[in-house]
GNAT family N-acetyltransferase
Amino acid sequence: MTPMIDIRSAAKADRDAWSGLFRDYMAFYGCEPSDAVLETTWSWIMEPKGPMECLLAVNGNQVVGFAQYRAVPETLTGAWFGQLDDLFVAPQARRVGAAQALMERLEDIARMRRWFKLTWITADDNATARRLYDQIGKASNWVVYEQMLEG
């Protein structure tokens, strides 16, 4: 029997559950988990007018995944779109529809807020995520550049 995944917004009481998942997410991408980064990101999520929001995937009473997103203005259209920054599901909870459910709820939010699109990036070699993303959207023709700044 497939478990029932509930999607809801993160609340203050979810800090510990979210923190464990976010540490795993950071490790997945080769980042050293840091209390300072955790605290900053959580404060962005919890601040009512903060820059980021977070959806949680819950199976029973266990938080098994998250999607962190934000609104972005686009100068070429004068409109807003949604940017999914982070999506993660605990390995033991994968393949039960949690990531799909998170993306569906995010799409609902985007439509409600009248964002004209959703965007997200993932690592080129993240085949698992790309299988899901290829079902939902299409890869853009934009190339992403980074310039790392010291200090």
Summary: The helical segments are 15-28, 35-46, 98-112, 127-136.
